[in-house]
C-alpha cells in the first residue's frame, strides 16, 4: 500500500525516533508498504518518520545510482546491491574528509542543495529478521545511509546548510509545509490538517 509522505514542517520529522523490537505490530507489512511508497515516489531511501512513525526504521534501495556513469566502477557495483532494511541503526564511526553532493528529500520536494558528509561510516543495525550486522559503508552508499539515519535522529538535510542557504530556501520550505507544492506522489501536509 502506498502511504502519504509527511511534508516538511510536520513535528514527527523533528522527533528522535525510538527503537523497536520484533514484536512491533505489523512490521512486515509496514516494511513492504514503505518500500512500495519509496519506489512510487522514485526515492532511494525512506525513513519511518517520513510516513508519520517516530521509530528507528528505514529502507534503502540505492540501485538507481548504479546507472550513473560518472561514478567509479567499484561504487556502481556496490550500489547495485545496496538494497536493505535498517532497524535500530547506529553510527559507530564517521571518517574521512567531508565531500559535497547534491541531496534532495521526499519530504522536501523540489528542493536540492549541496550537503557535506564524511565518506566512510561504520554502522551497526538489525535487519528485518532482527539479526545484528556491523558494516563499513563508503561513498554514495555511506551518504544515503547518513541521510536516512538523520531522519531517525530528527535531522533534515536542510539543517546542514549555511545560514545564507537556509534564508534563500525559507520561502520554498514554508510553501511545502502549507501544501503549496506539486509533488508527483501522495503527501501529507502539516498545515492542512482538518479542523474539528
TrEMBL record:
Enzyme class at the top of the EC tree: hydrolase
Single GO BP term: translation
One protein family per Pfam: Pep_deformylase
Keyword Lipid metabolism: no
NCBIfam families xref list: pept_deformyl, PRK00150.1-3
Family designation: Belongs to the polypeptide deformylase family.
Cofactor binding note: Binds 1 Fe(2+) ion.
Gene: def
Function: Removes the formyl group from the N-terminal Met of newly synthesized proteins. Requires at least a dipeptide for an efficient rate of reaction. N-terminal L-methionine is a prerequisite for activity but the enzyme has broad specificity at other positions.
Catalytic activity: N-terminal N-formyl-L-methionyl-[peptide] + H2O = N-terminal L-methionyl-[peptide] + formate
GO molecular function: metal ion binding; peptide deformylase activity
Enzyme Commission identifier(s): 3.5.1.88
Binding sites annotated in the UniProt record for Fe cation: 105, 147, 151
Active site: 148
UniProt-recorded name of the protein: Peptide deformylase
Keyword set, alphabetical order: Hydrolase, Iron, Metal-binding, Protein biosynthesis
Top-rank taxon, per record: Bacteria
Protein biosynthesis listed as a keyword: yes
The species this protein was found in: Polaribacter porphyrae
Cofactor(s) required, per the database record: Fe(2+)
Amino acid at each position: 500500500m502506498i502511504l502519504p509522505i509527511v511534508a516538511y514542517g510536520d513535528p514527527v520529522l523533528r522527533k528522535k525516533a525510538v527503537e523497536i523490537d520484533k514484536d512491533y505490530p505489523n512490521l512486515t507489512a509496514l516494511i513492504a508498504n514503505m518500500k512500495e511508497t519509496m519506489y512510487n515516489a522514485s526515492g532511494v531511501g525512506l525513513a519511518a518518520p517520513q510516513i508519520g512513525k517516530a521509530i528507528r526504521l528505514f529502507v534503502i534501495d540505492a540501485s538507481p545510482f548504479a546507472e550513473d556513469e560518472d561514478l567509479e566502477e567499484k561504487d556502481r557495483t556496490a550500489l547495485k546491491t545496496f538494497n536493505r532494511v535498517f532497524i535500530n541503526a547506529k553510527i559507530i564511526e564517521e571518517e574521512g574528509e567531508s565531500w559535497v553532493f547534491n541531496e534532495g528529500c521526499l519530504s522536501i520536494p523540489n528542493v536540492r542543495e549541496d550537503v557535506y558528509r564524511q565518506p566512510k561510516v561504520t554502522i551497526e543495525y538489525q535487519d528485518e529478521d532482527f539479526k545484528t550486522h556491523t558494516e563499513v559503508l563508503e561513498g554514495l552508499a555511506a551518504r544515503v545511509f547518513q541521510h536516512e539515519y538523520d531522519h531517525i535522529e530528527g535531522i533534515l538535510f536542510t539543517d546542514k546548510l549555511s545560514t545564507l542557504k537556509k534564508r534563500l530556501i525559507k520561502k520554498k520550505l514554508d510553501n511545502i509545509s502549507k501544501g503549496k507544492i506539486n509533488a508527483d506522489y501522495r503527501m501529507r501536509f502539516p498545515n492542512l490538517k482538518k479542523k474539528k
